């Protein structure tokens, strides 16, 4: 005697055919810096003094040879060659903010102040009271190592974990907030009007964040030699294409631009075994002047 199978038994369940929200949420954020090979050693030497307390292993900020840069073909997307001199002299949109305890803060700030020929004060923002936004409680100074790299700033933190925050200065805060919420499937935590934070990942003693900060008093320009890399366990390419046009540059990485022209890399890292294989392969292929972490 034979039995016919119910056709519905052959259909994959919804769980098998669709990605869960947890799988497609933003998992990690890093910054890639692309430089000529000859500039990498000196840049690494100076940046490690700033990053030593939050990223001593260069896990979250990578310095790579610009011959492999996904920014090499970016002119056709951003028309950077048509920028005016005023735009070229504007403030970099991407910055790195590091929150340290008082002792570490004084140490790193002393390094910056002792190397004024290397670190130039480039931009200052006012720190406003969270309750009364009309009250200025201080200022945050942003320093420039190179016009093509992100700005850097150090801030003291009186308690809790250290923080590594990738900040994007924006003109249209609401439009950018909505874009990044849809792209990352994460909620932006409002701190005050025109300023919000995405809490990306927590490690023992360290928080990794992305922030959007409205900046209406300066000309903003995309940072030429650095890009944010957003990592997902599973990248829902079809969904992301509804948010932003993606261009695939290798089997795991896609490139896109946010509404204000900043380049973003989206990477699917898959499961743990894939990560380990990629990491071993990347280390073998890396040159002495190139740091690669996945």
From TrEMBL:
It comes from the Eukaryota. Residues 44-267 form the FAM124 domain. It holds the Pfam family FAM124. Belongs to the FAM124 family. This is FAM124 domain-containing protein. It comes from Paramuricea clavata (Red gorgonian).
């Amino acid at each position: 005697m034979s039995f016919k199978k119910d056709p519905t038994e052959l259909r994959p369940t919804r769980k098998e055919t669709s990605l869960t929200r947890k799988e497609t949420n933003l998992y990690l954020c890093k910054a890639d810096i692309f430089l000529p090979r000859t500039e990498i050693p000196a840049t690494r030497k100076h940046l490690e003094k700033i990053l030593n307390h939050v990223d001593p292993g260069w896990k979250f900020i990578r310095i790579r040879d610009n011959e492999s840069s996904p920014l090499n073909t970016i002119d056709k997307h951003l028309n950077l060659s048509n920028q005016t001199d005023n735009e070229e002299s504007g403030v970099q949109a991407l910055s790195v903010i590091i929150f340290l305890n008082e002792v570490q803060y004084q140490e790193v700030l002393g390094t910056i102040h002792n190397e004024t020929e290397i670190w130039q004060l480039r931009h200052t923002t006012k720190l406003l009271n969270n309750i009364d936004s009309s009250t200025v409680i201080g200022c945050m100074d942003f320093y420039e190592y190179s016009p093509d790299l992100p700005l850097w700033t150090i801030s003291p933190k009186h308690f809790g974990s250290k923080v590594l925050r990738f900040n994007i200065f924006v003109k249209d805060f609401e439009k950018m907030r909505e874009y990044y919420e849809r792209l990352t499937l994460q909620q932006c935590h409002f701190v005050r009007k025109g300023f919000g934070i995405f809490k990306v990942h927590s490690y023992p003693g360290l928080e990794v964040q992305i922030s959007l900060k409205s900046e209406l008093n300066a000309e903003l320009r995309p940072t030429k030699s650095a890009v944010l890399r957003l990592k997902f366990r599973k990248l829902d390419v079809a969904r992301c294409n509804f948010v932003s046009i993606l261009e695939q540059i290798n089997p795991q990485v896609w490139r896109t631009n946010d509404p204000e022209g900043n380049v973003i890399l989206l990477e699917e890292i898959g499961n743990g075994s894939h990560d380990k294989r990629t990491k071993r392969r990347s280390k073998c292929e890396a040159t002495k002047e190139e740091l690669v972490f996945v």
